[in-house]
Amino acid sequence: MSKKKFIRPLGERVLVKPLEHENKSSGGIILGGEETVISSNKGTVLAIGKAVEDILVNDIVMYGPNSGMIIKDGSEEYIIIREKDIQGVIE
């Protein structure tokens, strides 16, 4: 059996799983096909580095569209972001 790999962020970095949403119009019409698209500014925190102070695992955070480094693992996408690039926590 192979062990599933996990990314542990270092320092003041945060591992985020971007939220997905369907690309629908306000009337419910799916735009551009049936695929889901990655939200460019919100995600769930999966792990934090030891120097992170204000963010917790499972927080929903907002960040800029060009923040961090995108990591792809098969069909899954993650982003590693510095804590200072996170704009806020959605409560």
For the largest beta-sheet, the strand count, sense and barrel status come to:
6 strands, antiparallel
Would you tell me the structural class of the helices and strands? mainly beta
CATH topology: 10 Kd Chaperonin, Protein Cpn10, Chain O
CATH superfamily: GroES chaperonin
Enumerate how many helices there are, as a single number.
Answer: 0
Instruction: Provide mean pLDDT, rounded.
Output: 83
The sequence of SSEs as H and E is EEEEEE
User: Which strands sit side by side, in order, in the main sheet?
Assistant: 4-5-1-2-3-6
Shape: globular
CATH architecture label name: Roll
Strand content: over 45%
Number of domains: 1
Which residues sit in consecutive blocks of at least 5 with pLDDT less than 50?
Answer: none
Helix content: under 10%
Radius of gyration: 15 Å
Features:
single chain; 91 residues; mainly beta; 10 Kd Chaperonin, Protein Cpn10, Chain O
Question: What would you note in describing this structure?
Answer:
This protein is mainly β and 91 residues long. It has one domain: GroES chaperonin (10 Kd Chaperonin, Protein Cpn10, Chain O), CATH 2.30.33. Helices cover 0% and strands 48% of the residues. It is built from no helices and six strands. It has a six-stranded antiparallel β-sheet, with no helix packed on it. A hairpin with a 2-residue loop joins strand 4 and strand 5. It is globular, with a radius of gyration of 15 Å. It starts with 12 loop residues before the first strand and ends with a strand. The mean pLDDT is 83.
